[in-house]
Design brief:
This protein is an alpha/beta fold. It is 47% helix and 15% strand. The chain has helices at 18-36, 52-60, 65-82, 96-111, 165-174, 182-193, 222-226, 229-236, 244-247, 260-274, 305-312, 314-323, 335-364, 378-383, 386-395, 399-420, 422-425, 432-453, 458-467, and strands at residues 2-6, 10-11, 40-48, 89-92, 115-125, 130-132, 150-159, 179-180, 199-200, 202-203, 211-212, 215-220, 251-256, 281-285, 288-290, 293-294, 331-332. It binds 5'-O-[(L-methionyl)-sulphamoyl]adenosine.
């Protein structure tokens, strides 16, 4: 099965914050997971550079927009790298391949008769890069960015979105899982049912952007340029190979709720007009909130994800961002919360379990683990169904639920070790077999857990497998099962997976 996963491409008008890291981490977990299942995966992320908000920041710094985006490019490219994201391509909308593709795409919708010239007048929020109705503004300000909207009046090229209302409604009725979660599907569908307004796909008052093929005095409106990245990347990511045949329309778009309309309404209509199939699925997630407000640069409550990684390491940040807030909903995030989970769940539940297990194998069995799989074992029951449950939840983008399902097993293994008390069993020579069975079960259960966790916390997963004498590269999903551990030798007490981090405010 082809599985193509995308993040939104991020505006480079400032440096990355934890909200951007959030979507990239989620997409990476899905990409890694489907690779574990042997699927044909392509994972795309990147940056959206032709925004007016970018041109403005450049001007404020006395730079040409291109100079500015080239200077900040490395900071943004570093984000997926530091998050340990396994994206197959990184797109910049200033790439020549993308710009050419956008022109071709726009020409197609023009040729389809869906473009006409008109005058647009309305309130515009530069933060959203979107026109706003009076009703959407609060005291003339954008409720998301809390900045004043600007009045814009221009002669532009318009896309006949209104002509697509019926087709979009039919599409939504035929594909009830087009947009997830269901409440977001309903939101998008009601927006369509409420009547669609044509929208401008070009800007006259700006030079920064992709020029309109039939009217070079205008540039493409940033969204008419940006959305197309999901398709353009497939056309030029691998020179000599057109990945569209393999991955379009098998795409799963991940996006925040702020950009639902562009993705769930405008994008399918643009695709239909240009003669492409619509995406397989769109998953809309919520916001990470800090003090109940969206984390964003304009609100000044930014957490730099790279700072958090410096202090806690990348896996704890990946773990916390999926676990702290139920994926799909809004939720509050705090550094205290990260610290608390680091100590209680990662260091205690998981780290100590590995330390105890390996230390006991080293001490009581001289590092030699005999193969002792038994269908009667409590761990056999504990691990049963883990693989299918987690896979099922990830098929529904329930990243938080899938992780909790894995954690049930982690907690179960901790209960098991306490109940079995192998340190007591070890005192009695005649109970050697029981001791071996318990330690085998712990090592084997932990291996299954490590494979299940590989998409969430890949470095930790590899360390666990290596400490247990397993091959860290053998993480095929079929290994999320009981009893696959063969006899092993040379197991030594593992060093702590999560060393103490002192002050919870260290990263603030
Ligand atoms: N450039 C557009 C997207 C174009 S996609 C064709 C854009 N960029 S953005 O930099 O503003 O980032 C938008 C995305 O970043 C959101 O949709 C979401 O995925 C992520 N997030 C930004 N802030 C966020 C939070 N506070 N919480 C969770 N995700 C957030 O819009």
């Amino acid at each position: 099965m082809a599985y193509y996963v995308t993040t939104p491409i991020y505006y480079v008008n400032s440096t990355p914050h934890i909200g951007h890291a959030y979507t990239t981490i989620a997409a990476d977990i899905l990409a890694r997971h489907y690779r574990q299942r042997g699927e044909d995966v392509f994972f795309l992320t990147g940056v959206d550079e032709h925004a007016s908000n970018v041109a403005r920041v450049a001007a404020a710094q006395g730079l040409e927009p291109k100079e500015y985006v080239d200077r900040i490019a490395d900071v943004w490219r570093d984000l997926p790298r530091r998050l340990n994201a396994t994206n197959d391509f990184y797109i910049r909308t200033t790439d020549d391949g993308h710009k050419r593709f956008v022109q071709d795409f726009l020409q197609r919708i023009y040729d389809a008769g869906d473009v006409y010239q008109g005058v647009y007048a309305g309130w515009y929020c530069v933060g959203c890069e979107a026109f706003k109705t009076e009703a959407e503004l609060v005291d003339g300000r954008c409720p998301i960015h809390e900045t004043a909207a600007e009045w814009i009046e221009e002669r532009n090229w318009f896309f006949r979105l209104s002509a697509y209302q019926e087709r979009l409604l039919r599409l939504y009725d035929e594909r009830i899982d087009l947009v997830l979660p269901a409440f977001r599907y309903n939101e998008a569908r009601s927006f369509i049912a409420g009547g669609l307004q044509d929208f401008s796909i070009s800007r006259a008052g700006q030079r920064w952007g992709v020029s309109i093929p039939w009217d070079p005095d205008q540039v493409a409106y940033v969204w008419a340029d940006a959305l197309v990245n999901y398709l353009s990347a497939l056309a030029y990511a691998r020179p000599g190979e057109d990945l569209r045949d393999r991955f379009w329309p098998s795409v799963r778009h991940l996006l925040g709720k702020d950009i639902l309309r562009f993705h769930c309404v405008y994008w399918p209509a643009l695709l239909l007009s240009a003669g492409y199939q619509v995406p397989r699925q769109l998953f809309v997630h919520g916001f990470l909130l800090l003090d109940e407000r969206k984390i964003s640069k304009s609100l000044g409550n930014v957490i730099d994800p790279l700072d958090l990684i410096d202090v806690y390491g990348v896996d704890p940040v990946r773990f916390w961002s999926t676990r702290a807030v139920s994926f799909g909903h809004d939720g509050s995030a705090s550094i205290e919360g990260l610290h608390e989970r680091y100590e209680r769940e990662l260091a205690n539940d998981l780290g100590n379990l590995l330390s105890r297990t390996t230390a006991m194998i080293a001490r009581y069995l001289e590092g030699e683990l005999p193969a002792r799989a038994s269908d009667d074992s409590a761990v056999c029951t504990l691990v049963a169904g883990l693989g299918s449950d987690v896979a099922g939840r990830l098929d529904e983008y329930d990243l938080t639920g899938a992780l909790e399902r894995i954690w049930e097993v982690v907690r179960g293994l901790n209960r098991y070790v306490d109940a079995q008390a192998p340190w007591k069993v070890a005192e009695d020579e005649s109970r050697r077999e029981e001791l071996e069975q318990t330690l085998y079960d712990l090592a084997d259960g932990l291996s299954a857990v490590a494979v299940a966790l590989a998409s969430y916390i890949p470095e930790t997963s590899a360390r666990i497998l290596a400490a247990l004498g397993a091959d860290p590269d053998e993480i095929g999903w079929e290994r999320v099962a009981y009893g696959l551990t063969p006899a092993r030798t040379g197991i030594a007490a593992a060093s702590p997976l999560f060393p103490r981090v002192d002050a919870p405010t260290a990263a603030a």
